[in-house]
Amino acid sequence: MAEILVKNGFVVDPTNKIDGEKMDIAIKDGKIVKKVNERKAKIIDASGLTVMAGGVDIHSHIAGAEVNMGRLIRPEDHYKDAVRKTKLTRSGTGYSIPSTFVTGYRYSTMGYTTVMNGSFAPLKAKHVHEELNDIPLLDKGTYPLLGDWWFVLENLAKGDIEECARHVAWMMQSTKGYAIKVVNPGGLESWGFGHNVHSIDDQVPNFCITPREIVRGLIKVDKMLNLPHTIHLHTNNLGQPGNYKTTLDTMRAIEDLSTDGKPVAHITHIQFASFAGDDWGKFRSGADEISKYINAHNHITLDMGQVIFTDTTTMTADGPFEYTLYTLSGHKWVNSDVETEASGGIIPFTYKKNNAVNAIQWSIGLEIALLVKDPWKIFMTTDHPNGGPFMSYPRVLAWLMSKKAREATLKRCHKKAQKKSLLPSIDRELSLYELAIVTRAGTAKALGMPNKGHLGVGADGDVAIFNINPETTDIAKKYKAVRKAFKESVYTIKDGKIVAKDGEVVDNTTPGRTMWVDVKTKQPCIINEEMKRKFREYWSIEYENYPVSDHYVKVSDKLTVEASV
Fold first, then answer.
1. Is the pTM of this model over 0.85?
2. Residue 543 burial by Cβ neighbours in a 10 Å radius (0-12, 13-18, 19+)
């Protein structure tokens, strides 16, 4: 593997408190090192360019059954942005739901090197890993849906946290997952009976347990297992007017579980959980209330779930929410119930500037990101593809960094949205340093990945170089140039290999690793005849065929952790 020396770039590395300092970055054997043999190394002259770590996306739906079903029901999406075959790359299709290879290509050309898949039903794990294997140029991991998994509900209802933890440890090993994903806790199980939960204290049918108890129990499980990431939480009442109150109730319900001042939960796509107003006619932003709470507390991290004005595809394990969206839009709809584990739905959707609700949603995501004072608490996502395709990230970055860019979009929005938006009162514009936090350093820290998101010695050799000169570019005014720079990196380096240059893939031999957590418990999960009987009666496969064997993961990056149970 060739040595690389990136010379004279403006390095932005918040983890190591480097803010635009001119310096060199050396890479050897796929890692950042102190120095290399300059006579033998490949030299990249980064003079006048910005150098950051490779991007780390904390939440994006890129693989698995829901993504593949989205491709099946949306043939019209295939032809919007087809990709031709080249000498190096494969052809592919898809705008909001790109094919696996195209997903890797597009992320890489934007300077991203690590992407976490937002959720998957454990029963579908083998399919997920087949698709993750197919995505080139990226390291990736995935979050199993465990909030409404029957073994979790049964153990939490009994108050047996330790046995629940051992079951979850077995599930992490069996599915090769990275973190506990919780979607509409209790709501997915209720949906199997045609119902939903509407507060964190509603009873879940048949289990005598509430969303509050599910969330609190799984946070305790997460701590017992010493998992690198907190629980990854999609809150109740997502997408409903007034749901910011439920979000606040959820955050307050877990305050006492943070005994060391560190986060205990990550609330994903916060925009969709920050709606105020009693109904759609009175719909408004709850960003002010949410951001004030986050500014005063340290036990939660967030990601944006920013809306983009475009045609896209919504997909989530939150079956009740997708049904509600179907009744509002009338678009074609797919519903899915995955045996004893999860629900789900998929609906095409178009966010429009001249739709007051859509325009307020667009404003909400930006409002929260700008009103939360500490950028280490909130990260940039679109909840791809729910808020919009990940290829739109450069547009989001421009809005975050430029009030002028936000004003240019807002003035074309529905008049009602203009009046209700908080954006005109917000002058904040993120710096390159803050941007590196919300796209790299902060996400890597929240995910518990010490080798990612920074350029310190020992970090992965993942580097992104952008055509931005912070000495000569007024980023807030020249936002279009900045948007273009983040759309096409000058160089993307993955594991010490140049994989993209000037917006084109130049090396397709790097498969990337699949990261998962192997939890070592003091006592094993109780696999008895009763558990096997339940598999025979309630699942479509036997217990013995359920786990994902090693051959399903081509390039595995296993993190072994010691549990306290």
1. yes
2. middle
